[in-house]
Amino acid sequence: MTIAAFATEHFANHTDWLPRVVGLRLTLPLVLLVTFWIWETLRPFFQLQRNRHRHAVRNLTVALMNAAVIGLLFGTATVLTSHWAVESRIGLLHLTDGFAVGRFAAGLILLDAWMFVWHWLNHRVPLLWRFHRMHHSDPDMDVTTATRFHLGEHVISASLRLMLIPVIGLSVWQIVVYEMAVIATTHFHHANISVGRADRWLRCLVVTPDMHKVHHSRWQPETDSNFAVVLSIWDRLAQTFRLNSDPHSIAFGLDEFANERWQSIGGMLRTPFAGKGSRQRFGNVDDEPQSQSEVSEVTPRP
User: Where are the domains of the chain?
Assistant: First the structure.
């Protein structure tokens, strides 16, 4: 049965999914945003910027526009594609009649592995980097940076995921649960906070603030590390795991977008169309800017 035929026959039976999915997608980000905003206010890792509220309004405005467009373009299509794949028993997860809980967990792990690859590609493919660099051009990373992505990046990502759903055989709830995990971890590791010594233990499992601060460094060798989104193991397996022994020395943003005009809503939206999409941002990447620490960890810790 084709997706179109499936939609015609089954859409009315599954409209009860949509309010629940929408409710989850709206509630969790708001709760996490407020929680980490308060944490940042009370115990910030870096000194709070003077224009913090303006910075937040700009990032969140872009995020709300993205959410509206992506929801309209891909919300129903994602649900229908997933139901079609599951009921037609299409995809890797349906090759065997294994334990249901095991299949559910396997789907989440495969999704996270894909997100690692997708993030890595955003740093390697010039066209993708043009869109992704809007996220990295934020010179004041905080919890709102977790929502700062260009619409073009979201559209490409959502389109590829539509194709991935039948390949893996993902259910709607696998997608929803994984998205909740992504929202929780990205708000956590973008926040202007520190969990102290606990970071060392937490990063054995998930991406932590100390890991992701390195990823947002202006120095390209650090920018091109720590691509994992939820589980940190992917960076260890790919040998892209890196730490900076002095996180306070890290300077965020991108040199080519240091001018304040790129931090306005219009400037952020124009970022993909500015200059060249080359990844060679500093000429010789072995020449580290003076603001960076000379000591960093390239190999995985035991």
Answer: 27-44+51-275
